[in-house]
Each structure stands twice: as structure tokens, then as C-alpha cells.
């Protein structure tokens, strides 16, 4: 069973690269919402992080120079699972995002990996979940919830 390559979950303002680059590297702009009802004071790094993890089954907050981040992305690539990578060192507000992730997860280190809206840990935690057979079911739960079983092939 694997996830279809064509499943796209990011909104129009999320700019994705090819699968072999950063898989789905994301640039989020501060104050970049299109809703006129949204007050500027509500647009915070935590809100943008929440929006990103809500709209994507797998999100990796990463840095391009981080070997653990590369290891985590490789695991998802090897499993043929589409993910969204937010490269904090390439992002204008990367430091603020990292501060927000610290408040949300208890650490500033990267990668910070979210699956199905839930923080699962860093690269080592993610590899452990995979070895225990628990990672793929978490991902599948999200895709089934978002897209239904018709998008899965066995």
C-alpha cells in the first residue's frame, strides 16, 4: 500500500519544489492570508505553523544544512510518502518559527516532525516509530481522513 504521488495538500500560497529537491519545500509569508476578515494581529508564526500542520499530513520543519533533517526526509522519500518541508534557514521568519516550535514542542532542535496534525518528534523518534511499524499507519490515517480510500492502491 502506498500514497499516490499526485495528492496535493498545500494551499496556493505554499510553493512546492520537486520530489527529489526538498520534496515539497515550503515558503510561508507573514501576513500572506487572502481572507479580508483576518485581523493582522492573528497572523503569528504559531498560527501559520498550525495552519500548515492542519492542511498537510506530514510536515517537517527543517534546515537545509541539518544531517538529521536530511535523514528524516530520506525516510519519507524511501517510503514514497509525500511531505511538506519548511526550511527554516531559508525562511525570512525562520527564527520566529523556531521560537514558536519551541513553545509548541518543548525544543528548538530540528527536524520537528508532525504527522496527522500531531508532533511525533525528531529524526530519531521518527525512525523508531518506523521500525516499530507505527509510522505508516499514522500517515495512512491522515490520508484516509483527508482523501478517502479511493486514493490508495494496494
Automatic annotation (TrEMBL):
GO-annotated cellular components: mitochondrion; nucleoplasm
Protein name: Glutaredoxin-2, mitochondrial
Keywords (A to Z) from UniProt: 2Fe-2S, Disulfide bond, Electron transport, Glutathionylation, Iron, Iron-sulfur, Metal-binding, Mitochondrion, Redox-active center, Transit peptide, Transport
Recorded superkingdom: Eukaryota
Keyword Transit peptide attached: yes
InterPro entries xref list: Glutaredoxin, Glutaredoxin_euk/vir, Glutaredoxin_subgr, Thioredoxin-like_sf
Pfam family membership, one: Glutaredoxin
GO MF term list: 2 iron, 2 sulfur cluster binding; metal ion binding; protein-disulfide reductase activity
Stretches assigned to the Glutaredoxin domain: 58-120
SUPFAM superfamilies: Thioredoxin-like
Species name: Sarcophilus harrisii
CDD domains: GRX_GRXh_1_2_like
Primary localisation category: mitochondrion
Oligomer status and interactors: Monomer; active form. Homodimer; inactive form. The homodimer is probably linked by 1 2Fe-2S cluster.
Subcellular location as annotated: Mitochondrion
Protein family: Belongs to the glutaredoxin family.
Coiled coil start-end: none
Function: Glutathione-dependent oxidoreductase that facilitates the maintenance of mitochondrial redox homeostasis upon induction of apoptosis by oxidative stress. Involved in response to hydrogen peroxide and regulation of apoptosis caused by oxidative stress. Acts as a very efficient catalyst of monothiol reactions because of its high affinity for protein glutathione-mixed disulfides. Can receive electrons not only from glutathione (GSH), but also from thioredoxin reductase supporting both monothiol and dithiol reactions.
Gene that encodes it: GLRX2
Amino acid at each position: 500500500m502506498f500514497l499516490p504521488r499526485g495528492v496535493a495538500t498545500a494551499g496556493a500560497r505554499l510553493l512546492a519544489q520537486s520530489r527529489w529537491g526538498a520534496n515539497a519545500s515550503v515558503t510561508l509569508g507573514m501576513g500572506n492570508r487572502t481572507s479580508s476578515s483576518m485581523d493582522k494581529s492573528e497572523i503569528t508564526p504559531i498560527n501559520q505553523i498550525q495552519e500548515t500542520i492542519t492542511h498537510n499530513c506530514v510536515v517537517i520543519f527543517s534546515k537545509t544544512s541539518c544531517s538529521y533533517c536530511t535523514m528524516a526526509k530520506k525516510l519519507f522519500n524511501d517510503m514514497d510518502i509525500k511531505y511538506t518541508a519548511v526550511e527554516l534557514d531559508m525562511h525570512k521568519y525562520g527564527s520566529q518559527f523556531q521560537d514558536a516550535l519551541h513553545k509548541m514542542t518543548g525544543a528548538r532542535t530540528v527536524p520537528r516532525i508532525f504527522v496527522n496534525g500531531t508532533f511525533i518528534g525528531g529524526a530519531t523518534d521518527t525512525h523508531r516509530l518506523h521500525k516499530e511499524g507505527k509510522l505508516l499507519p499514522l500517515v495512512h490515517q491522515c490520508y484516509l481522513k483527508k482523501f478517502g480510500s479511493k486514493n490508495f492502491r494496494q
